[in-house]
Design brief:
Elements: E1 2-6, H1 15-30, E2 34-37, H2 43-54, E3 58-64, H3 65-69, E4 79-83, H4 86-96, E5 99-102, H5 107-121, E6 129-132, H6 139-150, E7 162-165, H7 168-176
Length: about 180
């Protein structure tokens, strides 16, 4: 099982988010699943990888060359796929992953989440798409999605393809399909 985690690489966030990423990574490693990430070593992205490796989990990073050039890469990853663009990065992550978990994050995390969620709705893949949000950071987003559905902009059945969870255990159970 390979689980992709979308999350922040911002160094200016509350440490509780970094701790959450480490906890998720450790839980993935404990299960002997592989972690797929954006291949960075700072903030939440680095923490999820360190967490997985702390429990002898395999980590697979996918990172554009431009980010490697500014010393952003997690060179401790078991595999580090260096690609040419963000679009290639997302395609590779989608290709090699069995499930997707979005942790709290900013625009990049949201962009990854929305792309993989839309891909699920359009049947480009049939893999679980999960939001893990124990701190209610995305509560306004959830309200917005509900409102967009009420107004007819989100199609029936689309909202149900995104699983909102509040604990690591719940998110991993959804990833496994249980």
């Amino acid at each position: 099982m390979r689980v992709a985690v979308f999350c922040s690489s911002s160094p200016t966030i509350d440490p509780k988010y970094v701790d959450l990423a480490f906890e998720l990574g450790a839980a993935i490693g404990t299960r002997k699943w592989d972690l797929v990430s954006g291949g960075g070593h700072i903030s939440m992205m680095g923490a999820v990888g360190r967490g997985a490796r702390s429990m002898d989990g395999v980590t697979i990073g996918v990172i554009p060359q431009a980010l490697v050039d500014i010393e952003f890469a997690d060179h401790d990853s078991h595999e580090l796929h260096v690609v040419t663009s963000m679009r290639e990065r997302k395609a590779k992550i989608e290709e090699i992953s069995d499930a997707f978990i979005a942790l709290p994050g900013g625009l990049g995390t949201l962009e990854e989440l929305f792309e993989i969620w839309v891909g699920r709705f359009l049947k480009f893949h049939n893999k679980p798409v999960i939001v893990l949000d124990p701190f209610n950071l995305y509560a306004p987003l959830k309200v917005l999605v509900d409102h967009l559905e009420q107004e007819g902009f989100v199609k029936p059945g689309q909202r149900e393809l995104l699983h909102w969870t509040t604990s690591v255990e719940e998110a991993l159970a959804v990833a496994l399909g249980t």
